[in-house]
Amino acid sequence: MGRAPCCDKANVKKGPWSPEEDAKLKAYIEKYGTGNNWIALPQKIGLKRCGKSCRLRWLNYLRPNIKHGGFSEEEDNIICSLYISIGSRWSIIAAQLPGRTDNDIKNYWNTRLKKKLLGRRKNSNINRLSTTSHDPKDTNGIEEKSCSSILSDSALERLQLHMQLQNPNICFYNNVSMWPKLLPLQEKMVQTINPRQFASPSTQLGQGQKVGIYEQISNLNMDNLMDSSLGFNNGRNLLDSTIVPSLAGIEQSNEGIQTFQGEIDVGFQQPEESIAEFDCFKEIDCSKNNSIWWSNDQLDSKSVSLNAWDCTSVLRSKGTYEDYVLGYNLEC
DNA sequence: AAATTTGCCAACCGCAGGGCA
DNA sequence: ATGCCCTGCGGTTGGCAAATT
Questions:
Q1: pLDDT the model gives residue A152
Q2: A234 and A227 in contact (C-beta within 8 Å)?
Q3: In terms of domain of life, where is this protein from (predicted)?
Q4: Beta A328-330 vs A321-323: how paired, if at all?
Q5: Considering only residues 24-53 of protein chain A, which place a Cβ less than 7 A from any atom of strand B?
Q6: Which bases of chain B are contacted by protein, using any atom under 7 A from a CB?
Q7: A36: Cβ under 7 Å from strand C?
Q8: Looking at the whole model, is its pTM more than 0.85?
Q9: Would you give the DSSP letter of residue A289?
Q10: Residue A296: Cβ within 10 Å count
Q11: What is the tens place of the pLDDT at every residue in A37-49?
Q12: I need a surface site. Which of A32, A50, A288, A329 has the fewest CB within 10 A?
């Protein structure tokens, strides 16, 4: 027996919302609220819409302070870094970007940002396919699998982005000026997470020097946090629920699923030439001409804002210290 | 100029999980 | 403990507009 439908589909209007419907919904919610019952709401207003549809319309379009389009470079970077860390948890990513909806971010990622950041992989694969044998079997009779068929799209994208951020020529980890400014409370918290010696983040550092707290953060963020959050734990549990409550619950049920690490491990077992098909691996050798992966289009090394990773102004504006590096909220 | 392809985005769908009786 | 209801989420689709052939 299937699940009961949430509404009478035959008598429910679908498709684009008319201005009149928008006005009705908006006026009602602004006056009475949702009443914590979206299902009953359309009947109260006299809308022939499914409650879910009303909710979606309100959340994605009608509610106050919604921003549409025009993503800034800063927002791009936040989306990118969070996608690397936590994957397609659009609602969590949206929570870090005031005025943005999960749907907006999802659409933006799928239609623009992903192509902007990963577009060259596609070309690379197309070129490879056009220049190599189309015999799907290798000489041993074993079906040849490219990395792209072994790693899931999401894992592959995140791996590529991760590798790119480690590129020493534009390296986020090595470039002090690209590190986000930590608020005092966040700094204290990170020290709590890993009590080993920390240098002050305010210490003036030379370009490329790796010191202290940010080194820990970078390890925590892009290696350990991602590993942990994606099932690449190696016995560690940096997402201890006492430390990172909002993410710990999300990521601890990975039994039985193919992990990101598992996919990567399989990928790296492939012949070198298979691995080398990806631009991120080719370019990680820092050869001068290939080093600007991130800059695929407009983001060349001259125009990249070194402060683009500093989203603390955005985070502060919400009244909570939301550490996008760790991906959790810290009420203060 | 017409036909076709591509890009974009709003909206839908189905599933999972939480709350409650 | 169980089942129902509702919400929230992420993946997918459909349709419009712009770009290309």
A1: 54
A2: yes
A3: Eukaryota
A4: antiparallel
A5: 49-50, 52-53
A6: 7-15, 17
A7: yes
A8: no
A9: G
A10: 16
A11: 888 888 888 888 8
A12: A288
